[in-house]
Design a protein that fits this description.
Helix content: 40-55%
Radius of gyration: 22 Å
Strand order of the largest sheet: 6-5-4-7-10
Strand content: 15-25%
Number of helices: 11
């Protein structure tokens, strides 16, 4: 009997948390215009009494505030509530192979402070971790105490740090695997090591997954985010949610073999799409690199039947029109051969900050029942 009671209590607690997250999401989506309690009840399916309890708690925690009154079709005007974006903040940290970017965002995802520095992924792990932690601490100082209420106290002002790193890695355990070209990171518990240094909760995911999470929306459908920078990877959003796979290793897009007798890749295989694309870029053969990326995109579209393709990463963003044109041409050719609709291609919104701002969403997403 006691086990049943404990389980029921845990489930009820989780349900309450989920309901509050749904309300928070609607408040966030409503923006400055806000939303009434009655509208919250209608959109969530919760009772007006439940909504009143949740919103009272959110107001007490400083997460929600009144935003005026709205005329009603009958009875007294309705009080409108809005999210208080500056009530909490999250940090996003992007560890690229040669560069580190860190950002502080508020609950609406709006950047408050940003830092970029050189980063050596090939350095000894302890030295690299110390450098990353130092940049995060400097970022907090840049943002200023006034921007971060409660300082660095988890649950008060700063909620935690979302880290986006090259894969493969284990999102669940926070452990890096054999990052292509950097085997010394294999098995490193990056999440826990950074959490100890910073004294904050840390969430770790692949850079492409972080970007995909930041781009996803409740009605996002299914899309692939293809990131061509110092490497090549994909973030997959299927039916509105980020798909990580059973071992959180999905999206190793660059290591599909497309040429059996091709050049050796850093992963050990021959003819990987990443090796071919980066070789074309190094030769200045931008058009060929774009078409190679299109071949990989066409494989993905056929395999997953996704709705659209988004392109990002520093190489793509240096010549966005060229890459969109090249990938779109290959997708159109493939669609014509198979008598399927052409999948649209576009450059990712957010530009070079798509990954780091997505990393901050790794922390924020659970607050809004996302991710």
């Amino acid at each position: 009997m006691s086990g049943t009671t404990a389980g029921g209590g845990a489930n009820l607690s989780a349900l309450r948390g989920h309901n509050a997250a749904l309300v928070l999401r609607l408040l966030r989506d409503a923006g400055e215009d806000g939303v009434s309690r009655l509208e919250l009840a209608e959109r969530t399916g919760l009772t007006p009494q439940a909504v009143s309890k949740i919103t009272a708690r959110l107001r007490a925690e400083g997460l929600a505030a009144e935003a005026g009154r709205r005329a009603s079709t009958g009875g007294k005007p309705r009080t409108v509530l809005r999210l208080v974006p500056g009530a909490r903040h999250a940090i996003g940290l992007h560890l690229d192979r040669d560069e580190l970017t860190a950002v502080v965002v508020d609950l609406a995802g709006t950047p408050v402070a940003l830092r970029t520095a050189r980063f050596d992924f090939g350095a000894e792990a302890e030295r690299a971790l110390t450098a990353a932690a130092s940049e995060v601490e400097a970022l907090i100082a840049d943002a200023g105490a006034g921007a971060l209420p409660g300082g660095g106290v988890p649950g008060s002002g700063l909620l935690g740090v979302g880290v986006a790193a090259p894969g493969p890695l284990d999102h669940g355990s926070g452990v890096l695997h054999r990052v292509t070209g950097f085997p010394q990171w294999d098995g490193l518990p990056l999440r826990d090591a950074l959490a100890r240094r910073l004294g904050l909760p840390v969430v770790l995911d692949k850079d492409t997954n972080a970007a995909a999470l930041g781009l996803a929306a409740p009605a996002a459908g299914s899309f692939a985010y293809l990131h061509l920078g110092t490497g090549l990877g994909a973030g997959l959003v299927l039916d509105g949610g980020v798909y990580r796979g059973a071992r959180t290793d999905a999206g190793e897009f660059g290591h599909q073999v497309v040429q059996l007798d091709g050049p050796r890749c850093g992963c050990g295989n021959y003819g990987c799409l990443e090796a071919l694309c980066l070789a074309a870029v190094a030769r200045g053969a931008q058009e060929q690199a774009a078409r190679l990326l299109g071949v990989g995109a066409a494989n993905l579209v056929r395999l997953l039947d996704i709705d659209r393709v988004l392109l990002g990463g520093r190489i793509v963003l240096a010549a966005p029109e060229s890459y969109v044109r090249g990938v779109a041409a290959v997708l159109a050719e493939d669609a014509a051969r198979t008598n399927r609709p052409t999948v649209p291609v576009d450059v990712v919104r957010g530009g070079t900050r798509a990954v780091v701002e997505g990393a901050a969403q790794l922390v924020l997403a659970p607050l809004f029942a996302l991710g």
